[in-house]
Design goal:
Blueprint: H1 5-8, H2 37-55, H3 57-63, H4 77-94, H5 104-125, H6 128-131, H7 133-149, H8 155-166, H9 169-179, H10 185-213, H11 216-244, H12 256-267, H13 273-298, H14 308-312, H15 321-338, E1 350-353, E2 362-365, E3 378-381, H16 390-399, H17 402-412, H18 417-425, H19 430-434, H20 438-454, H21 462-487, H22 492-502, H23 507-519, H24 525-544, H25 550-558, H26 565-572
Parallel strand pairs: 1-3
Antiparallel strand pairs: 2-3
Helix pairs in contact: 2-3, 2-4, 2-5, 3-7, 4-5, 5-12, 7-8, 7-10, 8-11, 9-11, 10-11, 13-21, 15-17, 17-20, 17-21, 20-24, 21-22, 21-23, 21-24, 22-23
């Protein structure tokens, strides 16, 4: 799955002014809904989903609704003002519904809908259109990426939508120039980096994709859209570099109160930041010790930072790369089934060479939770190009070493992101298919990867364990760094030291991580979600005693889509009112 920052931070509004406003809400109690609170809630859910899809076409594409694929989000203050009014009205009408009048699934829906509305209002209150140039860059990049990464329609049809969105870049960047005031320097630099990458993609990669289709009409349409998009990108980049960057003096930190409010609304966490930081540091140090011990066994006499080089030597021939991933996927599926760790659909993602118009290491391309046109998921792996020289082939294979690919498959495909996505598509109500907790979604993959190893998968394979522990350690460092930066006023240089001293990253990688924690405070989601799920697992195990079954717990955990752990605790432990942490 591909998650962009604008969506991950709860952006349901944004540049398409022609997007219709939501229909006027029906009065509470109107029509057949008068007698049935469940039906009234269903009506509110339908209104919210319809309004969100219309306001954010990029979100609609990701979810699998393709009515708006030729549009980009409306990033105007006027659209945001309309969204504030809609969300406040939604919360007011939602407040008239009592949990005691709803059945079990509708109680979950009510909690999810209220959370979404409050979180969206909180994000808007942070003035992202004024303070966050990454919002505009992500909307531009994601608008194109999602259309190419997902095979919901033939490529010519998707390219038609790509061309339409390329022509919407200028209005989007016009809004950026109109709205941005005093963003943090780090955010402006990151936005420039994203748009520079997008410009190279539009100029150099997309033409070969279009040419391969062999359709003169599509090609002519693309050349027109490409020219306009490149001019728009050049103008936006020039403005950001010459004008916006020199006056980007804003503070990146959320501040203690806003940081805590975001955690309270998104995850139900009420802990003081000192206590939350203590939990995060305890987790980081535990993972630090585990990684150090495994590194010592794999590479005795070497520094922990050098141990991953041992992993790089463990790879096969170029032609074995994809078959080895396919074999690993089969082994994982067999292990999950044999050990009854979760219910897995019969179909699995198809391991496929990554198309030249995509990029990355290994990438899951799967139907969104509301998708109706497309079912087959693909696990893309970047293959070795036969045209490469021996040095480049070797570098590629070392990066795609066997232990790292095992972890990438556990995390990205099964039983990680793909199984989570399939569960979301099978959730019992539209609200549960639609809603998404970033903390739970990102935390699930890290949690289940760790659970697989603890249950005996790849037992005795220290290289796989080291690859897993290294990834988990970096995630834990992100959580510590984000809390210190945004709740305690730490500087970026302080965060760099966390990654160099605790995770043994080199200076360049550590700085990239620290800067990410500065402009994306909720990069802590994977580590936070893993801790929340682990605590819930232990609490459910303690309550059920000998009746506890891990696979049953996992199935129940995934039965409501990507709901936050706060909601899942109330479902699995109805007599327990504890917070997630």
């Amino acid at each position: 799955m591909r998650w962009v920052l604008a969506i991950a931070l709860g952006a349901t509004v944004g540049c398409q002014r022609a997007a219709p406003p939501p229909s006027p809400p029906r009065p509470a109690g109107a029509g057949t809904a008068r007698q049935d609170p469940n039906a009234r809630l269903d009506e509110l859910v339908r209104e919210h989903i319809d309004a969100t899809l219309a306001a954010s076409p990029t979100t609609a594409t990701w979810l699998g609704v393709h009515s708006f694929d030729d549009r980009l989000d409306d990033a105007s203050p006027e659209a945001q003002s309309r969204e504030v009014g809609r969300l406040r009205s939604l919360l007011q009408r939602l407040g008239a519904l009592r949990d005691g009048d709803l059945d079990a699934n509708h109680r979950i829906d009510r909690a999810l809908l209220e959370r979404e509305a409050r979180l969206a209002l909180l994000d808007i209150d942070g003035r992202p259109l004024e303070r966050n140039p990454i919002r505009y860059a992500d909307l531009a990049a994601a608008g194109i990426d999602e259309l190419l990464a997902r095979e919901f329609a033939p490529l010519p049809e998707r390219l038609h939508a790509v061309n339409a969105r390329l022509l919407k870049l200028r209005p989007l960047f016009d809004e950026a120039r109109r709205n941005l005031r005093n963003p943090p320097e780090l955010a402006t630099r990151k936005a420039i980096e994203i748009l520079q990458g997008m410009r190279g993609f539009v100029a150099e990669t997309l033409p070969s994709v279009v040419a391969a289709v062999g359709d003169d009409k599509v090609s002519a349409e693309f050349r027109f859209a490409q020219a306009d998009a490149l001019r728009s990108l050049d103008d936006a980049l020039g403005w950001m570099q010459r004008d916006l960057l020199p006056r980007s003096k804003g503070e990146f930190a959320l501040g203690r109160e806003r940081f805590l409010e975001r955690l309270r609304v998104s995850d139900g966490i009420e802990l003081p930041p000192e206590q939350l930081l203590a939990l995060a540091e305890k987790d980081m140090r535990s993972l630090h010790r585990r990684y150090e011990e495994t590194a010592r066994q794999i590479a005795p006499g070497k520094a922990p930072a050098d141990a991953p080089r041992v992993l790089e030597d463990d790879h096969g021939a170029p032609e074995q790369l994809l078959p080895s991933v396919e074999a690993t996927l089969g082994q994982i599926a067999g292990f999950v089934h044999e050990h009854e760790l979760a219910t897995v659909p019969a179909a699995r993602p198809t391991v496929t060479p990554m198309p030249p118009f995509l990029w990355g290491f290994a990438e899951l391309s799967a139907p969104g939770p509301l998708e109706t046109r497309w079912r087959e998921a693909r696990f893309y792996v970047d293959p070795v190009d036969r045209a490469w020289n021996a040095k480049k082939r070797d570098e590629h294979l070392r990066a795609f070493n066997r232990p790292s690919m095992v972890i990438a498959t556990l995390h990205g495909a099964l039983p990680g992101n793909w199984l989570l996505g399939e569960a979301a598509r099978a959730a019992p109500t539209p609200m549960q298919r639609f809603a998404r907790s970033v903390t739970f979604a990102d935390g699930w993959s890290g949690y289940i990867e760790q659970e697989m190893l603890e249950e005996g998968f790849a037992e005795g394979d220290l290289k796989v364990r080291l690859a897993s522990e290294r990834e988990a350690l970096v995630m834990a460092c992100r959580m510590v760094a984000a809390i210190r930066l945004h709740a305690f006023g730490a500087k970026v240089e302080d965060a760099v030291k966390i990654f160099t001293e605790e995770a043994w990253l080199d200076e360049y990688a550590a700085r990239r991580e620290a800067e990410r924690c500065a402009f994306d405070p909720f990069c802590l989601a994977p580590a936070l979600g893993r801790l929340e799920i682990l605590r819930l697992r232990d609490d459910v195990r303690a309550e059920r005693g000998d009746a506890f079954r891990l696979g049953e717990f996992h199935d129940q955990l995934l039965a409501h889509g990507m709901a936050p752990v706060e909601v899942l605790r109330r479902v699995l432990l109805p007599d327990d009112d504890d917070a997630p942490l």
